[in-house]
Specification:
- The termini are close together.
- This protein has one domain.
- It contains five helices and no strands.
- The chain has about 140 residues and is mostly helical.
Length: about 140
């Protein structure tokens, strides 16, 4: 599963270089959703097509038990990691909102107002989340 994200990130990177930030943002959301769907499917967790990205992220966090004893033997570090995960949760909710507001989702009557820097922000957020989810997945499925 881990080989999927780097290849997808390279394809998304190419969209930034082609100066297509709206499509880039949509692809970033798609990448995260794809990774989450694979993990949830493997864990036997159902996902509704009506679930937004934030809800899907919460489901995968629960399925991987990422808030439970995140750093074994170190309660303070576990609490800090849990705080970072809460931040990623907010990031995923806002990545979904950004895609809906300025990406290619739902069709657009005009060119997206987002720029390359916004697309880069979305890509970096997607890569951070997918790499972390893959690492946690591989920890429990060597």
């Amino acid at each position: 599963m881990a080989a999927i994200a780097p290849a997808a990130a390279r394809r998304i990177e190419a969209k930034i270089e082609k100066d297509d930030p709206g499509d880039t943002i949509g692809s970033c959301k798609d990448l995260v959703e794809s990774v989450i769907a694979q993990i949830l499917d493997a864990r036997g967790v159902p996902v509704s097509s009506r679930d937004d990205l934030g809800k899907k992220f919460k489901k995968v966090v629960d399925a991987l038990r990422l808030r439970t004893n995140a750093v074994p033997g170190d309660p303070k570090a576990s609490e800090a990691v849990t705080g970072v995960i809460r931040g990623l949760d907010q990031t995923m909710q806002n990545l979904g909102a950004l895609r809906n507001a300025a990406g290619t989702g739902h069709g657009r009557a005009s060119t997206s107002p987002v720029t390359r820097r916004h697309a880069r922000l979305a890509l970096n957020a997607a890569v951070t989340v997918t790499e972390y989810l893959f690492a946690e997945w591989e920890k429990i499925n060597p």
